[in-house]
Amino acid sequence: MFEHPEDIVVEREANYTTNAPLPSVPDIEGTPSLQLPHTFSEDQADTLPRIDKSILVELLDGKYNDRFDNIMVVDCRFEYEYEGGHISGAVNYNDKDFLAAELFSSPKPRTALVFHCEYSAHRAPIMAKYIRHKDRAYNVDHYPQLSYPDMYILEGGYSAFFAEHRTLCYPQNYVEMSAKEHEFACERGLGKVKQRSKLNRAQTFAFGQHSPQM
Q: Helices then strands (H, E): number in the chain?
């Protein structure tokens, strides 16, 4: 079930052509062993690993500090959703290129990346898939090496996390994407998604044959 009419837009955007000079490779193939307990969603077309909200709580509590030097929870929702309530410590990115520039300007090893949106049904997986494609391109000469092999989707998104771990959210609130009071901001956000989709397709034709420059 779609979260919102935006999902129709972002689902189409997911079919973009990657800038990587190599054909797309299944994420599972050639990927080092993942460090967190995870599952793969049978009803999703992607091969991105999912983690339960309880695993994220353990990760934030430091249970896996011996495996990671950095933890980055990426909230892919619109700004008003994030400001209305988010997982404590999460950073807000709803522009894929901004996030890619941040991650690959100076890659940090031993980093756990956890993506989520409202339900983690569309926006988060699309963002994560884009970052994985960029990672493949960035390491094209060292395949199957990845700068960020430990990349996960939070199952159920903020909606499910907030329902059970409200005290770990700041502020302790949940603003839906379709909230009436933010209707204009939502429409504006959807417009940006459409515009970025067109630019990404244009850039693919212009720079697709060149080595990635992050």
A: 7, 8
Alpha carbons within 13 A on the beta-carbon side of 29: 5
DSSP 3-state assignment of 51?
strand
Encoded tokens for 3: 């979260």
Reported in sequence order, the residue ranges of the chain that DSSP labels E, i.e. its strands, are 39-40, 49-51, 70-75, 86-87, 91-92, 111-116, 151-154, 169-170
Answer for the pair 73, 90: CB distance below 8 angstroms, yes or no: yes
| Alpha-helical runs (H) found in the chain | 6-13, 53-61, 79-84, 96-105, 123-138, 157-164, 183-207
Say what the pTM is: 0.76
Virtual torsion, Cα 45, 47, 53, 56, nearest 10 deg: -150
Higher pLDDT, 123 or 180: 123
Is 169 a residue of the active site?
Answer: no
Instruction: Say how many Å lie between the first and final Cα of the chain, rounded.
Output: 35
pLDDT the model gives residue 22: 42
Helix axes 123-138, 6-13, angle to 10 degrees: 20
- Report how far residue 24's alpha carbon sits from residue 35's, in angstroms, rounded to the nearest whole number: 23
Which amino acid would we find at residue 177?
M
199 SS3 class = helix
Residue with tokens 């990672």: 135
Q: Which of 35-39, 45-49, 116-120 has the lowest mean pLDDT?
A: 45-49
SS3 category, 65: coil
